[in-house]
């Protein structure tokens, strides 16, 4: 067995382990048994980064969350992300600001910042929150965050008169917080941790709340989520206006797989012209993903898949030759009008059916199932045009400050007024934007 084959087998085994629902349930059971046997409280860790836009959004709901559950809440200040985990940092920083500006109104939160706070104001906010007792963290955190993101130095100075530590003490607190975050195998702010599971911001808080509710820790009789976006877009929409939705998938992305069912439904239920433009997986773009981040990505994608009734089952990662062979057929298949269906089928094979999509027999069967002529399509097998196409797609995606997949670009029917979003968990935002443009 050569080294490449061995690494592929290991990668498949690891991905299957962290995606497994049975493993997930067993790990959760063991974690709770260990907590109980050690007589530990139900302690929730919350990682807060003052100059992280998502932390500004999440801090608004901390007190409401705390009061809804019989838990011990431990806020932890953290600083810069592990650089291993942030690809294309300039795009990342721009996108985070824009994303929070867009989604904050749906949570009835004010956020209008177009730039990050200065180092001086960030330092003041950290010194304030370093001095705050846990019980007051939500209340003071909201005030400090609002002042920080609106550059209200006078408000921060007023808070500093009541809460403040030295710069050295604040930096030590952040170093300690980063160590705890790293120990828990996480890398961003605005995240919750409870008994070996991580929950990022307002997008994933509901998973933690359901877990706590199952443990009978809720203070209310019925589970009600602490926060959820206030959506108005209908499930189906008819309009005289037509929109272009460009979809940027990759063949090794569990999040892309999780998105395909809803992309198809959006195509069926909304007035869109779906354009599929695949890109290379990050691992084939010479990027590295640390093991702890890969573990979080696959386990988080798996629970998202279960939520959206599009479950990850058995995985055969197509990285390398399988992906290259499959991509080589995309241009001709897309030209024949079956681009999205082809990508959707490949992802289903890789993330549900444990199929090597580089197998010629499989590809022939897939092409035939799409009612296309294999004798014509196979002439393009292992051709080179796809490389130029995928690189062009990537540059187009980057133009919207998106670097990961799946990403989307919504435009009017003339290709103008582009609206980019990154992630399968922002598909609701696409629907909201289409509904807004249709009215």
Mean pLDDT: 96
How would you describe the shape? globular
* CATH C-level category of the largest domain: Alpha Beta
N-to-C order of helices and strands? HHEHHEHHHHHEEHEHEHHHHHHEEH
Structural domains: how many: 2
Compute the CA-based radius of gyration.
23 Å
| Sheet with most strands: strand arrangement | 2-1-3-4
Helix share bin: 40-55%
Question: How does the helix and strand content classify structurally?
Answer: alpha/beta
CATH architecture of the largest domain: 3-Layer(aba) Sandwich
Give the biggest beta sheet: 4 strands, mixed
Q: Which blocks of ≥5 consecutive residues have pLDDT under 50? A: none
- Looking at CATH, which topology of the largest domain would you report? Glutaredoxin
Number of strands: 8
Total helical segments? 18
Q: Would you kindly provide a written description of the structure presented here, covering whatever features stand out?
A:
The protein is an alpha/beta fold. The protein has 2 domains: 41-214, Glutaredoxin; 243-438, Glutaredoxin (3-Layer(aba) Sandwich). The chain is 52% helix and 9% strand. It has helices at 3-19, 21-37, 53-59, 62-67, 89-103, 119-131, 137-149, 153-162, 167-183, 201-214, 254-269, 291-307, 321-335, 339-351, 360-369, 374-377, 385-398, 427-438, and strands spanning 43-48, 72-77, 191-194, 197-200, 243-248, 272-276, 407-412, 419-422. Strand 3 (191-194) and strand 4 (197-200) form a beta hairpin. The chain is globular and about 75 Å long. It starts with a helix and ends with a helix. The mean pLDDT is 96.
């Amino acid at each position: 067995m050569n080294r490449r084959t061995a690494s592929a087998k290991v990668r498949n085994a690891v991905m299957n382990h962290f995606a497994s629902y049975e493993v997930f349930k067993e790990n959760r059971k063991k974690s709770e048994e260990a907590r109980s046997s050690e007589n530990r409280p139900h302690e929730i860790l919350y990682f807060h980064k003052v100059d992280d836009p998502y932390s500004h959004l999440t801090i608004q709901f901390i007190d409401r969350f705390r009061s809804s559950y019989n838990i011990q809440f431990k806020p932890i200040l953290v600083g810069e992300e592990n650089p291993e985990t942030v690809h294309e940092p300039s795009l990342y920083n721009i996108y985070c600001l824009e994303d929070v500006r867009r989604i904050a109104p749906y949570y009835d939160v004010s956020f209008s910042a177009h730039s990050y706070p200065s180092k001086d104001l960030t330092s003041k906010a950290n010194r304030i929150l370093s001095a705050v007792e846990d019980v007051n963290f939500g209340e003071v955190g909201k005030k400090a965050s609002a002042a920080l993101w609106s550059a209200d130095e006078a408000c921060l100075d007023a808070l500093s008169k009541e809460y403040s530590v030295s710069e050295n003490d604040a930096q030590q607190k952040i170093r300690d917080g980063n160590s705890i975050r790293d120990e828990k195998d996480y890398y961003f702010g605005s995240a919750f941790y409870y008994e070996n599971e991580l929950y990022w911001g307002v997008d994933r808080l509901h998973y933690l709340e359901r877990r706590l509710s199952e443990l009978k820790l809720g203070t209310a009789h019925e589970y009600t989520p602490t926060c959820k976006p206030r959506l108005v877009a209908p499930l189906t929409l008819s309009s005289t206006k037509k929109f272009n939705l460009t979809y940027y998938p990759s063949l090794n992305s569990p999040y892309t797989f999780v998105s395909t069912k809803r992309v198809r439904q959006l195509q069926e239920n909304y007035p869109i012209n779906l354009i599929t433009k695949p890109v290379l997986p990050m691992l084939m773009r010479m990027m590295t993903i640390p093991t702890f981040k890969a573990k979080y990505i696959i386990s988080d994608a798996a629970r998202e898949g279960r939520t959206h009734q599009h479950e990850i089952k058995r995985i055969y990662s197509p990285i390398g030759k399988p992906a290259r062979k499959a991509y080589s057929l995309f241009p001709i298949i897309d030209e024949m009008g079956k681009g999205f269906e082809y990508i959707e089928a490949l992802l289903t094979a890789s993330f549900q059916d444990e199929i090597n999509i580089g197998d010629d027999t499989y590809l022939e069967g897939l092409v035939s199932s799409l009612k296309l002529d294999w004798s014509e399509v196979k002439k393009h097998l292992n051709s080179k045009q796809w490389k130029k196409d995928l690189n062009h797609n990537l540059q187009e995606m980057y133009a919207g400050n998106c670097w990961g997949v799946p990403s989307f670009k919504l435009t009017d029917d003339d290709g103008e007024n582009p609206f980019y979003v990154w992630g399968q968990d922002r598909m609701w935002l696409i629907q909201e934007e289409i509904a807004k443009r249709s009215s």
